[in-house]
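Suppose a colleague, Dr. K., hands you the sequence of a protein chain of 94 amino acids and asks what its three-dimensional shape might be. Before reaching for any lab equipment, you can write down a predicted structure in token form. Begin with the sequence itself:
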Amino acid sequence: MEDFAWEKLSGVGRLKSWTTIHIDVLPGVEPPFTVAEVELIEQPGLIMVAHVVGTPAEKLETDAAVNISFAPSNVDKSVVFPEFRLLARDAGGD
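The predicted structure, expressed as tokens, is then:
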């Protein structure tokens, strides 16, 4: 069995794919919202799935640079969700 250890990551990645959800599936999250696969820069193939906020889905581009942050749930403030935002150089002025 392999040994595993926690490792701090930068939280920076590149958008690989995304979809916009138009139905009410998450308590406290109003549709529509966008969920994306992000490949973290530390390791090719290291994928994280999370909300993309701050930019409309129609303005997202494959391989755009993003950074992670964490937002409290609207339902339970003790729970936080990861969310990605475009880095300023890829935000297109938004």
